[in-house]
Amino acid sequence: FSFSHGVTPYTPLKGVLIRPSIFMSxxxxxxxxxxxxxxLKGGGIFWFTDLTTPDPLYIxxxxxxxxxxxxxxxxxxxxxxxxHSFVKLTKLGNPYIASKMKMLHRGMGVMIVPFTMNFxxxxxxxxxxxxxxxxxYVIGEYGSSL
Length: 146
Hints:
Layout: H1 13-36, H2 59-77, H3 85-93, H4 95-116, H5 121-142
Helix pairs in contact: 2-4, 2-5, 3-4
């Protein structure tokens, strides 16, 4: 049945492999821009006038972490409707694995701050925006099931 409908045991891995490669592409592209685009040195506002340097107040890494954690928590609020197919399968099949995956994502959300505190401010604007779009998508797509 599964092979005749185009589903294989590796189908859930597509998202696991595609999303990080897109994220890393943006990471390297923005880091390359930070080094080669002079207007990023004076294009910010408030405390981030130079988008090529790390945030000395750690506001952007913390904001990135909070938006990621908000998305993780919102995804967990919807009982059998998950964004990621692997999470959906484990949520329906094994609540123990689903709870462990949620704890893993929470840990990743907390660890974003120490692992990214030396990243350029310009990168955080991509990441925070992507997190906010994901959060709005999750709430818009599955919000009626609350």
